[in-house]
């Protein structure tokens, strides 16, 4: 059976709710950007790149913890959190040492 003008072989066409938008970056790209930011954050400016990696990884995971996640997205969230934590600890200890105290 051939589909002509105005006739389709689909019984139920896709609704607009089930079709994703193509305007934003896709999840795989966000996961890779998050991993890159996490690695760069370990080298320099961890207080900036760590949270960026966490946000990119979280968006790449689809803003939920359940279900199937991509490996780069999960790595970005974990490394970004570690990176942020180390940067905050470094800031606290450097301020404490500069003030003349232990903490």
From TrEMBL:
Signal peptide: none annotated. Keywords: Membrane, Transmembrane, Transmembrane helix. It comes from the Bacteria. Residues 1-23 are annotated as: Disordered. The chain crosses the membrane at residues 28-61, 73-99. PANTHER family: MEMBRANE PROTEIN, SMALL HYDROPHOBIC PROTEIN-RELATED. This is Small hydrophobic protein. It comes from Streptomyces tabacisoli. The lineage of its organism: Bacteria, Bacillati, Actinomycetota, Actinomycetes, Kitasatosporales.
């Amino acid at each position: 059976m051939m589909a002509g003008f105005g006739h389709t072989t689909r019984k139920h066409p896709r609704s607009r709710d089930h079709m994703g938008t193509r305007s934003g970056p896709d999840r795989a790209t966000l996961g890779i950007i998050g991993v890159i930011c996490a690695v760069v954050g370990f080298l320099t400016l961890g207080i900036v790149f760590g949270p960026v990696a966490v946000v990119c990884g979280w968006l790449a995971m689809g803003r939920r913890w359940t279900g199937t996640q991509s490996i780069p997205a999960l790595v970005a969230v974990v490394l970004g959190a570690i990176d942020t934590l180390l940067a905050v600890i470094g800031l606290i200890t450097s301020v404490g040492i500069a003030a003349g105290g232990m903490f």
